[in-house]
Amino acid sequence: xxxxxxxxxxxxxxxxxxxxxxxxxxxxxxxxxxxxxxxxxxxxxxxxxxxxxxxxxxxxxxxxxxxxxxxxxxxxxxxxxxxxxxxxxxxxxxxxxxxxxxxxxxxxxxxxxxxxxxxxxxxxxxxxxxxxxxxxxxxxxxxxxxxxxxxxxxxxxxxxxxxxxxxxxxxxxxxxxxxxxxxxxxxxxxxxxxxxxxxxxxxxxxxxxxxxxxxxxxxxxxxxxxxxxxxxxxxxxxxxxxxxxxxxxxxxxxxxxxxxxxxxxxxxxxxxxxxxxxxxxxxxxxxxxxxxxxxxxxxxxxxxxxxxxxxxxxxxxxxxxxxxxxxxxxxxxxxxxxxxxxxxxxxxxxxxxxxxxxxxxxxxxxxxxxxxxxxxxxxxxxxxxxxxxxxxxxxxxxxxxxxxxxxxxxxxxxxxxxxxxxxxxxxxxxxxxxxxxxxxxxxxxxxxxxxxxxxxxxxxxxxxxxxxxxxxxxxxxxxxxxxxxxxxxxxxxxxxxxxxxxxxxxxxxxxxxxxxxxxxxxxxxxxxxxxxxxxxxxxxxxxxxxxxxxxxxxxxxxxxxxxxxxxxxxxxxxxxxxxxxxxxxxxxxxxxxxxxxxxxxxxxxxxxxxxxxxxxxxxxxxxxxxxxxxxxxxxxxxxxxxxxxxxxxxxxxxxxxxxxxxxxxxxxxxxx
Length: 672
Hints:
Distance between the termini: 98 Å
Number of helices: 25
Oligomer: single chain
Number of strands: 18
Radius of gyration: 31 Å
Shape: elongated
Number of domains: 3
Strand order of the largest sheet: 2-1-3-11-12
Structural class: alpha+beta
């Protein structure tokens, strides 16, 4: 090698450049790859078959094969629509050659500043390449192919042709693909007739169709619409007056109507959104990729849940409500509610209902409704007490008492005619009868933070207030959270990761995604078993769910919940393989339901559990080791003496059982 060559190579190294012959090699390799990609592409022309969704047993639930894709030329689309999509998805669309380094850098900077992915750098051309040609697999090779195909599309088609194809393929939620179908879905209009505000809302949905759908949450959709309008203003597509008028426009949607015929609509909405997140796809794969989505849903459980839910809600609905609702459009019939069913062994969501009518309201109360759980929150504090020196036989008084927290007085009372028992209750009796006074006293002793922290470990993620009333369920949570939090009581103390999708396969049967069961031991198995044993007595003649006590096998545990003034009604019950939560209440919390958890939610729970337990195996809760059963005095919780009028057997963690005979009825006070 001569001196000039050495000097050149040295300069390349200093500058971090590749020598000329290596550039040639890189370009040749890229060209070979590009040719192989382009010659092997098979564009999606017409509908090739939608994605199929299956339940846990392989039964077909539904498909995305739908006529809701209508091809229209760019000239039949509102100019506002074109500008809105370009503004929010690819503002430099007409300036780049298919790949936008400036857009990529801008997105990278935003993501670094926010500490998470909040913006993407894909151009409209890249999105079209992915939607038209590429498989669902997420890999470096696929991304490289996306870049190659973007350049190919830019050479093969004009910018307007690319935009037209993109707008006819883009997924806009609820099974609608393309802007014409989206315009009909949300506004009952043609794409050419959309106003500036409507076009902006439609363009804003593209980023996350489930999340930004006005049928899911109108406020979120409106906020996203204003973001798009602001982008159009910044770019110069509209004036300040146009932006102001559009932001203040009252949006009228037409409702989903017949789409409620899709099975398990609330469950499927969430599954579709999760599929899009898992695949990192805007929706074309769901529409034309022939995917197979295997879900955790058990269609038999879903049907049983829907039947029980409809029957229970109808019984709670005043006779004149339905007629009133038809005359006042868009006001959902009240009361509303939610139902969630989970398998505590693996986290599979087996059934889910988010409201009484999907066509009437797409708000998913199972996942989104923040309501006070009332007394159904108490087991978390009692479990915390068992881990902090108490036993099921420990006694506390139910009598007038005032607590002072931050110098403010708080005097708990029980509901009903008799606000106090005026005697000492064991923790078992207090939880079964849902005594507020004993529960608050217990929270005061162990500290509300202790109960709050355990609730969070069990699965409650919503903000909780560390005050004494928390034990009475005064912080708002979702029905889904309560279902997750009860699962460790059913499975020996393990928190489970919820699973909606078990597997995703492409049309060749290749696994694109497969779920894994994830569990974490969060409480002592002995604590979980003792709390469960107590909650089995809630469904008994002396428990708060006494009205349904004659309808169950002994291996069903539950806790009811009623909020102040009977605003909301809850029941969360479980067996070793089923956790079912039912929430009932009016969407307007100022309107009282007027019934307790046992009376309003209990019958729905009972109807569902009877149906699914009828033909299934009878599973029993397995008692862990180091639990002992001891005969105690029912009144005092001490070891039973011959003079005790009523005795019963109680469960204890070995080493915590009483050693003294009952001092009230016994003749001696010595340890046995």
